[in-house]
Each structure stands twice: as structure tokens, then as C-alpha cells.
């Protein structure tokens, strides 16, 4: 953990220029006003998110969304983060499903980030596939779309809805991993011309995958801690993040790849 970055009591538009807006009105694509501008995502949040923003702005980990600046003009709250247009959800929607090696490369990074958060007594309030972003390089980050809270606060505010926030047996949402693995198997079946079927058929398909894949899957179903998962052979033998690059390219080529949907160009003279 590090000291939180300073909060600036002014709008961000003196330093950033809005260029695009998406279907999600809370996220704005912007560039910084420098001779060689970079692209960022500027998120507009309610004042209720102050605690979560304070938490994530103090966290420094390669697999957790990086906060560059925070602006608090009046009742608004703007957070500047990296612009990463491709999520794991989009990859699953747009491809024939990641291979076991690609799943391992993704989860190795997700588990690393969640393990670090739990060591700081923090957790993603609701870790979902849409919150797991994959950069063009294959680099994975979490904490992009949902709040980072203390474990205690999380236990008080967790939703009972399995569909929305999965299970809460441990800090974070371990079951998102097993759900992703099930979806990957189903997508592979679709690619082979086999109707996805129900979960029972997916369990039968596990026999065709490796022993370490199967064991890791059942560990996630059982709700093993993030720290425990980090030592599993399925992750410790994972290939490098570069194996994810083809999946990102396919998702982007499909035209479905931007946060909250495709971006629509706007004429913001800011």
C-alpha cells in the first residue's frame, strides 16, 4: 500500500480533452493536453465512491487498475485510469473460447491481483468478467469497473444475487473463475458444432481436459482462498501473457470491444 495520490478540487478538463463517449455515460475517453498525448479513461463517479477511490488510489500492483489522478469539483468525482478497451467478457463473447493455457495466463494475473488486495484487507466488491480487462499486450488488470472496499465493508454490502456478484465465501469472488472456465468449455463445444447443453454436460467434458485444469476448476468451486489458488500448478506453470494477444485481436476485430459498448464519436470542443 502507498499514500493516496493528491485529490484536486477542480474539473479534469484543464489537463484532459474529451474525445469520445460510449454507451456508459460514466466513462469518457480522453487524451492529456501534452505535446505527445496519451489516451486515458476518465470515469465520473458519485460522491459515494470516495472511499473506494481512496482505497484503489493507494494500491500499487501491476494487475490492479492504476489511478493516475483524482478530481473532485463540487459534488462530482473524476478518476483518471488507463484506457483498456477489451474485457474478458468480450473475449468470451467474440471468440471460440480461450485454451487452457490462455485461461491459465489470464487467471495467473487475476489471482495475483486479488491475492495482493486480500493481503491489504481489501477486495473487489463485485469481480465479474467485465471487470477483468485485457490490454493489447495481454496484460490483465482488475478493479476497473467495480469498487475496491475493505473486507469488512464488503461483507456488509455484498449482494445476495449469484447472477450479479457470484459468491462471497472469501474476500473477492473466486467463483468467477469457475464460471469463466465453464463458459470457455461451452464456447469450445459450440466451435465444434456441439450444442452447449447444461452444466452436467460441461462436467463430463472436463474428462477431456488436463488433470491440473480439472483440479483447479474444482478448487474454485470449493472456494479456496486467493492465496491458496496462487500456488496451484495450473497457475504456476501458466504461459506468459503474450498468449492472450490473439484473443484480444479477435475481440477487437469483431467490433464489440469497447468499455460499455462501442464508442460513438462526439464533437466536444473542450
UniProtKB/TrEMBL annotation:
SUPFAM superfamilies: Protein kinase-like (PK-like)
Span of the signal peptide: none
Cross-referenced Gene3D superfamilies: Transferase(Phosphotransferase) domain 1 (1.10.510.10)
Domain of life: Eukaryota
Chain ranges of the Protein kinase domain: 13-235
Pfam families, alphabetized: PK_Tyr_Ser-Thr
The name this protein goes by in its record: Protein kinase domain-containing protein
Source organism (scientific name): Talaromyces atroroseus
Lineage: Eukaryota, Fungi, Dikarya, Ascomycota, Pezizomycotina
Amino acid at each position: 500500500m502507498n499514500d493516496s495520490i493528491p485529490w484536486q478540487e477542480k474539473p479534469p478538463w484543464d489537463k484532459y480533452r474529451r474525445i469520445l463517449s460510449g454507451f456508459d455515460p460514466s466513462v469518457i475517453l480522453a487524451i492529456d493536453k501534452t505535446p505527445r498525448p496519451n489516451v486515458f479513461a476518465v470515469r465520473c463517479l458519485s460522491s459515494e465512491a470516495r472511499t473506494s477511490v481512496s482505497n484503489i488510489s493507494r494500491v500499487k500492483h501491476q494487475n490492479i487498475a492504476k489511478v493516475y489522478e483524482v478530481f473532485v469539483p463540487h459534488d462530482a468525482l473524476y478518476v483518471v485510469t488507463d484506457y483498456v478497451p477489451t474485457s474478458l467478457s468480450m473475449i468470451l463473447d467474440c471468440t471460440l473460447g480461450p485454451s487452457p493455457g490462455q485461461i491459465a495466463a489470464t487467471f495467473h494475473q487475476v489471482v495475483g491481483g486479488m491475492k495482493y488486495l486480500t493481503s491489504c484487507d481489501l477486495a473487489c466488491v463485485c469481480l465479474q468478467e467485465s471487470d477483468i480487462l485485457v490490454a493489447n499486450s495481454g496484460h490483465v488488470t482488475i478493479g476497473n469497473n467495480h469498487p475496491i472496499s475493505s473486507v469488512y465493508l464488503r461483507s456488509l454490502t455484498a449482494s445476495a444475487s449469484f447472477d450479479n456478484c457470484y459468491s462471497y465465501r472469501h474476500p473477492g469472488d473466486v467463483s468467477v473463475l469457475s464460471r469463466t472456465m465453464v463458459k470457455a468449455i461451452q464456447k469450445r463445444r459450440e466451435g465444434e458444432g456441439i450444442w452447449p447443453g447444461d452444466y452436467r454436460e460441461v462436467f463430463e467434458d472436463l474428462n477431456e481436459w488436463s488433470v491440473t485444469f480439472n483440479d483447479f476448476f474444482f478448487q474454485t468451486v470449493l472456494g479456496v482462498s486467493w492465496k491458496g489458488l496462487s500456488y496451484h500448478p495450473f497457475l504456476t506453470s501458466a504461459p506468459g501473457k503474450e498468449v492472450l494477444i490473439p484473443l484480444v485481436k479477435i475481440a477487437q476485430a469483431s467490433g464489440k470491444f469497447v468499455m460499455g459498448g462501442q464508442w460513438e464519436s462526439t464533437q466536444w470542443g473542450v
